[in-house]
Write a structure and sequence with these properties.
19% strand; ten-stranded mixed β-sheet; single chain; 283 residues; alpha/beta
Length: 283
Amino acid sequence: MTPMGYKTILVLLDGAAHREEQINVAFEHAEKFDAHLVCLYVPGPIPIPAYALAEAGTIVTELIQRRRREAAQAVKNAFETMSARRRAVKCEWRMDDGDAVAAACLNARYADLVIAGQPLPRQEETGLSGAQFAADLVLCAGRPILFVPYAGHFPAVGKRILVAWNAGREAARALSDALPLLKRASHVDLVSLDPQSNASQHGDVPGADISLLLTRHGVKVTVSQQSGSGIGVGEQILSRAADVGADLIVMGAYGHSRLRERILGGATRTMLEAMTVPVLMSH
């Protein structure tokens, strides 16, 4: 049963500088749904091999630990500053020094929506900011993940939503998970991607059945079809989002195996690398 709204929202933060926009989006959604907001800060691993730390001695180790504490305090200060501005939002701060994936997935099980950051470019990959973490989170959390791009400002997320529909299990899950947002949107554009590739699942008129479901929920939806003509699905989605002026994309994640996506590429990988607006993903 799809919830009427998100009542517990989890935002995942580390020391990356771009996370301020994540905090803004998290508070916006908590306020919108009158939800309890939980901030989980995970420092992530120290990017120095254990043997190097042992050789460096206690002075270097203490310096690293001090900088980690300072980074955590800076993020906590930013979170508490926003909390002071938006007193109507009920929120709490948590910190976990353990494994990032395990901590995030455990806390996600007790939330309706998870807000995370887009992975940073590979050369900056650390902790929650890495592509590996994002992939693990989507697959293990059991909750919808709203990824916020590391570049840009997103003052209003969810007014005009693009739903990428391929009639697959993951897309159906994402659409159901996004219903609280879809019902609040001023307009929803649902695009059936390459419907001829799995015509038996789409029905006689691709998009008609799923649009009827959304209409019964009171969602204002427009349906269209799009064929790639040699363009990857991820690129199709991004292009369509730009065309319709979407401020949020809803899509299923990892319809193919993660190994296949790594080797051949895929829509999930493309979106995590190149998203231009927030993206809600479910697996």
